[in-house]
Amino acid sequence: MVKKPELWRWTESRWTNPDLDWKDKVITSGVDVGSVSSQAVILADGELYAYSNMRTGSDSPDSSMNAIKWAMEKTGLELDDIAYTIGTGYGRVNVPFSQRAITEIACHARGGNFMYGPTVRTILDMGGQDCKAIHCDERGKVTNFLMNDKCAAGTGRGMEVFADLLGVSINDVGDLSLDIDEEPPPVSSTCVVYAKTEATGLLREGWPKNKVLASYCSAMAHRIITLLERIGIEKDFAITGGIAKNRGVVTRLEKEVDIKIMEKSKYDPQIAGALGAALFAKALYDKGKRK
Amino acid sequence: MITMGIDLGAKNIKVVILKDNKIVGKSNVLAGFEVEKSAQQAVDKALKEAGITKDDIEKTVSTGAGEKLAPFYDETKSVVGCDSLGAVFLHAAARSVIDVGAEEGRGMRCDETGKILDFEVNEKCAAGAGAFTESMSRALEVKLEEIGALSLKATEEIPMNAQCTVFAESEVVTMVHNKVSKANMARAVHDAMASRITSMVRKIGFDRDVVLVGGVAKNIGFVDSLNKDLGLKVIVPKDPEYVGALGAALAAASWKGGK
After folding, report:
1. What is the pTM of this model?
2. Do the Cβ atoms of A204 and B163 come within 8 Å?
3. Is the ipTM of this complex over 0.90?
């Protein structure tokens, strides 16, 4: 049997800071177990030392363990070296080696503040199974937020369904969707199930794949804008999460809201939640020490 | 008087031919991608069954998402309007009607003539329509015709967290990992869908005689879950998927209650 290509499979990543030696430093970590992806971030004295970003498996404790192990790979670090760990995300209570769990909203704001600097006021986190618009202050403290976690339209899962339907790797969706002569109208169905039927009809009409993808990326941008409009966008505006890597959605979003989106961070935009958790871990560790 | 009702739904096209308030011909054809062709087929089939030709029909009413794609029609009428007419015709005491089709769910209240008093429609989200059970039967690897009976064998009530069809697919995968039986999963699917329909219907309220129509009414598992959720026994007419087309044919005959 021919193995079906796994089109939804996005590129997993790991990174170690080459200029940092973790020895004799306080190690804290944050683990974000999302519904689709899991990340682990390791800080040495509050500085970003290593991270991993991988697909969540069927079991949350296993996924958190895999993520932290991959982040620690070839660093010589062991679980026992980590002084404090915070779990966050959908599976935050299922991180067996963590001391505490903190909601992903708080972690994303804190992590976004670290990644994009203190001028960030609006963070849009476009995740695998939810989408959050978060307002925060100059210290990365949440002041307001709105989220959609009920409907796949406007989430990474919706994009996976489309990549699969069109036989295109999820990594290529954004670029392909921009390779068009004229911007087509967005797919009119909100529901991913119905949008799929609609797209099949468009393909039958003879639309090329990139045009259909353009139509869907545009629909997704519109969907997310309705969320943003309800809470309002305050400058500076940054995007995190997996969809931040999809130029097709981000470009259209930027055009529609007419607000400059901050330059991509040099780190993987999916680590914001875990990074925030690791920063909280450092703060809580320090607080514990002072007592 | 001979009239025809054509219901061009998202998935199937149904035709009913009425002669003096009696059904003399009916047909049900998959809409597919060439809706106009399928509609023609459906009309031809019903005419053949009735043993008449197009010229014998005095008036035709078309309804459904693709109402304008019917091969011929004199008037169009809303689906809710047709549903309630059909439901009151089949069950004179019906004052509340629920229609669960392939891609839409509707709740309505009507008077004794089948006139609409209030209604609520979901056409945006697959979670409250037949598309949901269809997608779930694929995920469970159970035939759509069998998922209803299967869920009646459930031994446990397992709540489903996902409200979205796409997310529910992932949830089913998790349930499979957790060794939940297929019967219990089928039950969870129908319970979830019933609660979506119930919350829609509660917005407009309902009376004691609730008639359930549309293709999904043939799913006994869903009917059972809906009964539990509503706290009553809904009335499912024979051939519930034809009620919209029947109502259209009744509208063509200017039927307003009575026999």
Report:
1. 0.87
2. no
3. no
